[in-house]
C-alpha cells in the first residue's frame, strides 16, 4: 500500500507540472455508429444492421479497466456473459447464455479469434486467454447465442472476435506503462510501434504478477506479441503475428462450508501438494485478404501453435505437450448495384491437434514452505501414458441479401470431428476413437426503420461436441476416453432492436429462448478421490432470457452505461442413460426436470457512471450486482436431501461498488495517463462463483477492497 501511495504522489507532481506547461485537448474518439462495420459474422455488415445480438467493446472502454489482465474486465458491460475469475489472476472460465458454465477452466463452445487466428482446438475448446494482452486490444466483437452455422463446435454459445492495435499513425512510437495494486499486484508493459510506407508494426512485452488475496494463490505471466501488417497495394493485405506466453498460477481450490471461518485460506490439499497450472505456449500465424476486383475476394489464414502444460493435484502431476496446426480459406462474391445487393461466401476450416499426455502419482509434503515455485513431489508410479490425435474440418456457405433498409443473412455448415486415443501403457498400444458430425444452420434478418429503431430476429443452431478436457476425463480408468458422451445440440430463437438518438442514447434489447438436447452435468465416480471431475449428458434444458445494454449521455459531460441480463435456465428432462444412474458407479444423481442450471444468476447488472470534470480529469463510479444462483447439478444436493453442513444448494448474490479517477496530460509530445482505481469499496464479503463439486468444495470467495494505480506514457 505504501508503494501505491508513493507512486500516486509522483503522478500528481508530474500532472501538476504538465498542467502548468500545456493545454490538453479532449482525446476521446466519437464512434459514428452508422459507419461501424463488424466482421464476426465472417461477412462484413454494418453494426446497426447485424441480424442478431451483438456487443462491441471499443478501445476507449478497454482503456477504462483497472488491471488490464483478464477478460472479465474487458467484457464487464456485455450482457448475457458471465465470467468467473478463478483465483485473482488470468485463469478464467466463462459462459454465454449459460453455455460452458460447467467447464473447469477455459472457454467451452465459445469461439475466440485474435487478429484472424482462432484459439479453439478441434473440439471447440479454448483452454485459456493467456495470449491476449488486454492493454493492447483495440476492439472486441461479441456475438451472443449459438452460431455453429458459422464456426461449428467453436460457436455453440457465441464468438469473441478480438482485434489488437496496429502500428499507429507515426513512423515510430510506443507505450510504457506500470501498474501496481493490492495483494502484490504489478504489471509492466513496453510497446514499440510505427509504420513505414506499406508496412506497419507493433511489438509488445508485458510482465504480470501477484500474490493473490487467498493463500496459495500467487501467479505470474510473461507475454510477447508481435504483429506486422503488409499492404503493398489496394488489393492485398497480409497480417503476420507471433506470440509467446509463459504463465504460472497456483490453485488454492474451492472451500467447503466448514472452512467459512477463514475465507482467505486454501483448501488443505493445495499447499502440501503444491497444486498449480503452468503453460508455456508459442503461436505463429498469418492471415491475408486479396481483392481480385470489386466483386471477388479471397481470405486465407494459417497458424501453428505448440505448448507445454503441467497441472498438479493431490492425485497426480499431469504433463501435456501440444502441437496444433490449422488453416482456413473463404471466397467472397458480391453482385448487384443500387438498393439490391447479393453477397455470397464459401469456405472451409481445418484444425488438428496432437497431445502427448502422461500422469505421475503425487505425494504431499507437509513440511513444504510456501513460495512461488514449480516444485512438487512425484512418485515413479505412472498412472497414464497416452497420445490424443484430433482433427476437424468444417465447410460453410454464407449468403446476405441487402435491399434498401432490409438485410437477410443465412449460413449453412457441415462439421466432421475425429478424436483418437492411443494408450501407450497397453502392451499392444490399444487405441479408441470418438467421431462427431453435424449439419448446422443460421437464418436472420434485420430492418432499419430509422436510426433509433433497427429491429432484428434470427433462428440459429448450436453444436457442442464433448471437449478435449471432457473426453480425457474417463471415469472408468486413468487413461482412455469417456466414451459415453454425445454432443449437445441446441436451437435458439431471438428478436430484438438497437438504435441511437443523436449522441445522447444508444441501446440494444434482445429476447431469446434456447432449447438444448443432451445438455451436460458434472459428477464424481467412486474410488477416484478428487483428482478429476467427470461429465455426462443430463437430458434437455431450456434457457430463456433478456439482454439489455444502454449508453445514455445524461448531460454533456456525464455518461451512464448499463448492461442487464435476465436469465431463466433450467433442465427440462432427466437423463435416461443407465450409465449415469447406476449408483454403484456414479456418486452423483443427475439433475431432474425443473432444476436451475448451476452458476447462473437470474439477474446480473453492471452499470458505470462517468463524469468528465474537465479536459484533464475523468471520474467514474460503477456497481456490479448478481442475484442468488443454484450450485449443484446433483438432484439430491439440489433438493436438500444431503447433509446440510456440507451441501447447501443456493448461493447468495452480491452487490459491489467500484470507482476510478483518471488524469490525462500532454508534455513534450508525450501523452500521459495516471489513474487510481478502487474495487469493492465497501469491502463486502462475497462468493465470486461456485462449482458443483461433489465433495462440497464448491465455494470460491471474492477479493475484499482493492486499490490499483496505473501510469501510462504514449510517445
What can you see in these coordinates?
- Helix content is 6%, strand content 54%.
- It has a single domain, classed as Maltoporin, Chain A (Beta Barrel).
- A hairpin with a 2-residue loop joins β13 and β14 (199-210).
- It is mainly β and 715 residues long.
Spell out the blueprint of helices and strands.
Elements: H1 2-21, E1 37-38, E2 45-46, E3 54-57, H2 59-62, H3 71-74, E4 81-85, E5 92-96, E6 106-108, E7 110-114, E8 117-118, E9 125-126, E10 137-144, H4 148-151, E11 158-164, E12 173-181, E13 186-196, E14 199-210, E15 219-230, E16 236-250, E17 276-291, E18 296-312, E19 316-335, E20 340-363, E21 377-403, E22 406-423, E23 431-450, E24 453-464, H5 468-472, E25 488-501, E26 505-517, E27 520-523, E28 534-537, E29 541-555, E30 558-571, E31 603-612, E32 617-626, E33 629-630, H6 635-638, E34 650-651, E35 654-667, E36 670-679, E37 687-690, E38 699-701, E39 706-714
Parallel strand pairs: 5-6, 7-11
Antiparallel strand pairs: 1-2, 3-10, 4-5, 6-9, 7-8, 10-11, 12-13, 12-39, 13-14, 14-15, 15-16, 16-17, 17-18, 18-19, 19-20, 20-21, 21-22, 22-23, 23-24, 24-25, 25-26, 26-29, 27-28, 29-30, 30-31, 31-32, 32-35, 33-34, 35-36, 36-39, 37-38
Amino acid at each position: 500500500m505504501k508503494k501505491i501511495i508513493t507512486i500516486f504522489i509522483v503522478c500528481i507532481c508530474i500532472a501538476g507540472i504538465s498542467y502548468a506547461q500545456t493545454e490538453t485537448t479532449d482525446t476521446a474518439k466519437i464512434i459514428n455508429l452508422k459507419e461501424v462495420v463488424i466482421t464476426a459474422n465472417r461477412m462484413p455488415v454494418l453494426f446497426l444492421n447485424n441480424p442478431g445480438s451483438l456487443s462491441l467493446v471499443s478501445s476507449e472502454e478497454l482503456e477504462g479497466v483497472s488491471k488490464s489482465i483478464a477478460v472479465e474486465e474487458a467484457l464487464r458491460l456485455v450482457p448475457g456473459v458471465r465470467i468467473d475469475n478463478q483465483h485473482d489472476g488470468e485463469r478464467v472460465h466463462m459462459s454465454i447464455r449459460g453455455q460452458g458454465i460447467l467447464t473447469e477452466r477455459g472457454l467451452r463452445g465459445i469461439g475466440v479469434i485474435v487478429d484472424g487466428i482462432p484459439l479453439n482446438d478441434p473440439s471447440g475448446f479454448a483452454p485459456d486467454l493467456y495470449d491476449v494482452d488486454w492493454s493492447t486490444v483495440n476492439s472486441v466483437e461479441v456475438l451472443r447465442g449459438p452460431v455453429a452455422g458459422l464456426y461449428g463446435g467453436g460457436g455453440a454459445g457465441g464468438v469473441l472476435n478480438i482485434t489488437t492495435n496496429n502500428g499507429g499513425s507515426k513512423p515510430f512510437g510506443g507505450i510504457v506503462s506500470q501498474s501496481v495494486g493490492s495483494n502484490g499486484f504489478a504489471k509492466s508493459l513496453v510497446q514499440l510501434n510505427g509504420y513505414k510506407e506499406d508496412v506497419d508494426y507493433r511489438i509488445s512485452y508485458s510482465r504480470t504478477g501477484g500474490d493473490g488475496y487467498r493463500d496459495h494463490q500467487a501467479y505470474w505471466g510473461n507475454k510477447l506479441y508481435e504483429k506486422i501488417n503488409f499492404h503493398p497495394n489496394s488489393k492485398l493485405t497480409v497480417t503476420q503475428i507471433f506470440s509467446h506466453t509463459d504463465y504460472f498460477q497456483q490453485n488454492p481450490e474451492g472451500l467447503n462450508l466448514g472452512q467459512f471461518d477463514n475465507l482467505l485460506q486454501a483448501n488443505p490439499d493445495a499447499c502440501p501438494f503444491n497444486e498449480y497450472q503452468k503453460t508455456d505456449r508459442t503461436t505463429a500465424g498469418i492471415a491475408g485478404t486479396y481483392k481480385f476486383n470489386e466483386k471477388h475476394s479471397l481470405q486465407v489464414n494459417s497458424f501453428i501453435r505448440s505448448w507445454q502444460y503441467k497441472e498438479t493435484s493431490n492425485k497426480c502431476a499431469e504433463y501435456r505437450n501440444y502441437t496444433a496446426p490449422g488453416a482456413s480459406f473463404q471466397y467472397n462474391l458480391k453482385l448487384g448495384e443500387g438498393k439490391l445487393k447479393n453477397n455470397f461466401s464459401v469456405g472451409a476450416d481445418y484444425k488438428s491437434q496432437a497431445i502427448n499426455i502422461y500422469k505421475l502419482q503425487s505425494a504431499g509434503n507437509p513440511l513444504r514452505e510456501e513460495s512461488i515455485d514449480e516444485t512438487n513431489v512425484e512418485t515413479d508410479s505412472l498412472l497414464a501414458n497416452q497420445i490424443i490425435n484430433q482433427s476437424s474440418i468444417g465447410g460453410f456457405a454464407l449468403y446476405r441479401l441487402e435491399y434498401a433498409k432490409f438485410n437477410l443473412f443465412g449460413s449453412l455448415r457441415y462439421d466432421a470431428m475425429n478424436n483418437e486415443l492411443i494408450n501407450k501403457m497397453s502392451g499392444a498400444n490399444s487405441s479408441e476413437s470418438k467421431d462427431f458430425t453435424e449439419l448446422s444452420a443460421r437464418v436472420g434478418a434485420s430492418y432499419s426503420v430509422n436510426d433509433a429503431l433497427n429491429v432484428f430476429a434470427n433462428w440459429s443452431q448450436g453444436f457442442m461436441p464433448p471437449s478435449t478436457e471432457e473426453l480425457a476425463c474417463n471415469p472408468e480408468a486413468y487413461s482412455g476416453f469417456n466414451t459415453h458422451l454425445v454432443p449437445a445440440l441446441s436451437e435458439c430463437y431471438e428478436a430484438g432492436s438497437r438504435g441511437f438518438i443523436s449522441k445522447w442514447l444508444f441501446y440494444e434489447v434482445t429476447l431469446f429462448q434456447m432449447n438444448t438436447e443432451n445438455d451436460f452435468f458434472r459428477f464424481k465416480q467412486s474410488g477416484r478421490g478428487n483428482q478429476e471431475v467427470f461429465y455426462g449428458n443430463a437430458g434437455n434444458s431450456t434457457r430463456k432470457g433478456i439482454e439489455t445494454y444502454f449508453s445514455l449521455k445524461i448531460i454533456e459531460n456525464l455518461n451512464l452505461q448499463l448492461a442487464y441480463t435476465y436469465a431463466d435456465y433450467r433442465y427440462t428432462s432427466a437423463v435416461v442413460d443407465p450409465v449415469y444412474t447406476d449408483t454403484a458407479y456414479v456418486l452423483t444423481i443427475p439433475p431432474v426436470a425443473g432444476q436451475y442450471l448451476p452458476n447462473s444468476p437470474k439477474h446480473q447488472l453492471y452499470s458505470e457512471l462517468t463524469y468528465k470534470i474537465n479536459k484533464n480529469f475523468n471520474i467514474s463510479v460503477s456497481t456490479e450486482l448478481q442475484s442468488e444462483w443454484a450450485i449443484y447439478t446433483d438432484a439430491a444436493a439440489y433438493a436438500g436431501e444431503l447433509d446440510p453442513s456440507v451441501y447447501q444448494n443456493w448461493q447468495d448474490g452480491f452487490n459491489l461498488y467500484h470507482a476510478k479517477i483518471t488524469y490525462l496530460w500532454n508534455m513534450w509530445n508525450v501523452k500521459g495517463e495516471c489513474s487510481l482505481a478502487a474495487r469493492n469499496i465497501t469491502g463486502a464479503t462475497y462468493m465470486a462463483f461456485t462449482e458443483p463439486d461433489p465433495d462440497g468444495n464448491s465455494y470460491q470467495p471474492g477479493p475484499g477492497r482493492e486499490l490499483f494505480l496505473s501510469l501510462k506514457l504514449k510517445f
